[in-house]
Amino acid sequence: MKMNQAWKKQGINIRPGTVITGKWHRKRYVIKRRLGRGAVGTVYLCEQNGRYAALKISENAASMTVEVNVLKSLGKVQGNRLGPSLLDVDDWEVSADAKYAFYVMEYLDGKPLQAFIKRHGQEWVGAFMLQLLGDLEHLHKAGWVFGDFKPENLIVVPSPPKVRWIDVGGTTKIGRSIKEYTEFYDRGYWGMGSRRAEPSYDLFALAMIFLTIYYPTRFEKGPNPKATLFKKLNNVQQLHIYRHCLKKALLGHYQSSAQMRKEILEAIHNAKTNAKTARRHTGTRSAAPPSNRSTWKEGGGIMLLAIVFYLSSLLLPY
């Protein structure tokens, strides 16, 4: 992860069992274990009155205030839970010379995107792509860009399966310079655009997220980064349905998430229609060429999942 500002990487180590009591609200949080550490602070799993939550703590009060404001702003996006719910904001005063800022948010227990798709099937790729594009459209309309958009900041929660955002530290106001990014998902690193906060920046990262599902160890950009990306994309048969749309996202040809989402839906619909036509002509599904069977099956499966889980969102105007 890189940042446009020279912010120090925070390293606050708190032992499990430690009780953090807020200076102002006097709420008590029992630390269970560390969940992660980033450029601004450290996140811990904690318990408060028998309920689990995620507590982020840092010495950098100014940066924490920025993140709190982002979470508050996302919470105002009507009808959509884009980020984790903000539960508390306070300070932890250890001594006269040691005070830390912290905030407490909803703890989202789920599976990483790649692990979920590997276990439950490729049909979920299209369904999650549609969902994330819808969420990004709401975020962009609220005046923000996710910025540090990557698999590590996403988690799939059950009942029904849905992708949720677990770290909004890189979220940036539209029009400003991206304040926090990870090179592999950054179009500037690939020479495919600027680091200006605009919808197309997130859409490039979205394409990279789904590409890296099939390249978990990532890959080097080589002497011709654009050619490298297109070659890697062309080699993934599971992304055949979305290949044209993902290339447009990598090239920055979409002006909005809604535009890309519309074309993804059209691609899925066309795959479904082509599958029906081919079956009519052959008279039997088994007569289909092996290379096309998985594509046909996926097109039907994706459409079914999209209808079942996201029908209401498809009817909402963007």
Can you give keywords for this protein?
12 strands, Phosphorylase Kinase, domain 1, two-stranded antiparallel ribbon, single chain, alpha+beta, six-stranded antiparallel beta sheet, 318 residues, 8 helices, Transferase(Phosphotransferase), domain 1
Please, could you describe this protein's structure?
The chain has 318 residues and is α+β, with helices and mostly antiparallel strands. 39% of the residues lie in helices and 20% in strands. The chain has helices spanning 61-75, 113-120, 123-141, 199-211, 225-234, 243-251, 257-282, 290-314, and strands spanning 2-3, 19-21, 28-37, 42-48, 51-58, 86-95, 98-106, 144-145, 154-157, 162-165, 172-173, 180-181. α4 (199-211) packs across α6 (243-251). The protein is elongated. The two termini are 32 Å apart.
